[in-house]
Specification:
This protein is an alpha/beta fold and 370 residues long. It contains 14 helices and twelve strands. The strands form three sheets. It has a six-stranded parallel sheet, sandwiched between helices. Strands 7-8-9 form a three-stranded parallel sheet.
């Protein structure tokens, strides 16, 4: 059995973030296969750290909450301390391999691995070709692992050398039994539309809520959470405020709910008639869509990125340029048609059946030659 390290500075168990879910599921899958995962993250320690037995907090990197790319770059201004500490931790634990979970936040561009430790770079986004850190990360890794088929195709489309790319698909942390057909029929008639999201402006959440039609009469429940990182300083707070403003205007329909743990998200979606993904930039996987599909909940989304590829016949889509009003129209059309809804719901779990922690961990081990 092998010891495999997964590096992500921002990692926190139950953090509302796709990349954290990805790392957490890989660690879970490695344990299920009898291997030992380590998760290397920055300080400070968090109250839920005990949920990840393999978590190692690096003393050489401390980040504010929330942190931005600029904060990480400042913390790594002198990379020597973190390079030395990561190499020491990997040697101390006898790591056979390390997977950098991101170019910057996962230390992929530094690739601070001791000799004879195999390295993998996870790809959750295709970076601009001119970005030097991205080039360094690709060149340093023994193997590059796109986290979805969409990303694997994106690498080829960008003209990158993908000869050493081996997909390691994102996995769903928790799988539960979907509602029965009878329960699903009742949800179609009167169940709420439920959304789960990180409070990121690019998710289009405030715009979606503002576009609720005047005659919409079904509850809309949004689990909205702040992560330990953000792309725009203050962006999460602004998104929360904008969504709560709509909730205050339409309290009979809109509810903003607190964060859920990863294991609780599928059950929340199991009680939904549908979910809506309003992200205004291409989703490269979309965990919340996958989690909804896993319990038979159809997805309504923008015809953009991986969501239509993921959901297929279990979803309905609207062009980005049609705006968020079109998403509510698509949702209403699906919910009003019993036959279409039944077929979409029945197809949903099969769309994501391959995304299990064990299968993803096996893909990573195979990519690393372990």
């Amino acid at each position: 059995m092998s010891t495999v390290a997964l590096a992500l500075l921002s990692y926190r168990p139950d953090q509302p973030s796709g990349i954290d879910r990805s790392v957490g599921a890989l660690a879970k899958g490695l344990r299920e296969l009898g291997h030992t995962p380590l998760v290397l993250a920055a300080g400070p320690a968090g109250p839920l750290d005990h949920l990840e037995p393999g978590l190692v907090r690096l003393s050489s990197v401390t980040l504010p909450h929330p942190a931005t790319n600029a904060d990480v770059l400042a913390a790594l201004g002198d990379p020597a301390p973190v390079v030395a500490e990561v190499r020491s931790v990997l040697a101390e634990h006898g790591a056979d391999a390390v997977c950098w979970a991101d170019t910057l936040w996962g230390l992929g561009y530094l690739s601070p691995a001791p000799a004879r430790v195999t390295t993998a770079l996870m790809v959750h986004k295709i970076r601009p070709g001119a970005e030097q850190r991205w080039k360094d990360a690709l060149a340093s890794a023994d193997v590059v692992c796109p986290a979805s088929d969409y990303l694997a195709d994106g690498g080829s489309a960008a003209g990158l050398d993908t000869s050493c790319w081996r997909p390691v698909l994102n996995a769903l942390h928790t799988l539960i039994t979907p509602p029965t057909a009878q329960e699903r029929a009742k949800l179609r008639e009167s169940g709420p539309v439920r959304l789960v999201s990180r409070a990121d402006p690019a998710k289009g959440l405030a715009e979606l809520l503002r576009a609720l039609p005047p005659d919409w009469d079904r509850p809309v429940e949004l689990v909205l959470a702040e992560a330990g990182f953000e792309l725009q300083a203050g962006g999460q707070a602004r998104t929360l405020a904008a969504c709560r403003e709509v909730e205050a205007r339409r309290p009979d329909l809109v509810s903003i709910l607190p964060a859920l743990g990863w294991a609780d998200v599928p059950a929340f979606f199991a009680g939904a008639a549908a979910t809506v993904i309003a992200t205004q930039v291409p989703e490269t996987f979309c965990f919340t869509a996958a989690e909804a599909l896993s319990v038979g909940t159809p997805v309504v989304g923008v015809d953009l990125g991986n969501v239509p590829l993921l959901a297929g016949e279990a979803g309905r889509y609207a062009p980005l340029e049609a705006g968020p009003t079109a998403l509510w129209s698509a949702a209403a059309e699906l919910l009003d048609n019993a036959g279409q809804y039944e077929r979409a719901s029945a197809a949903a779990p099969g769309r994501v059946a391959r995304f299990t922690p064990e299968k993803s961990a096996r893909q990573l081990l195979d990519a690393l030659g372990l």
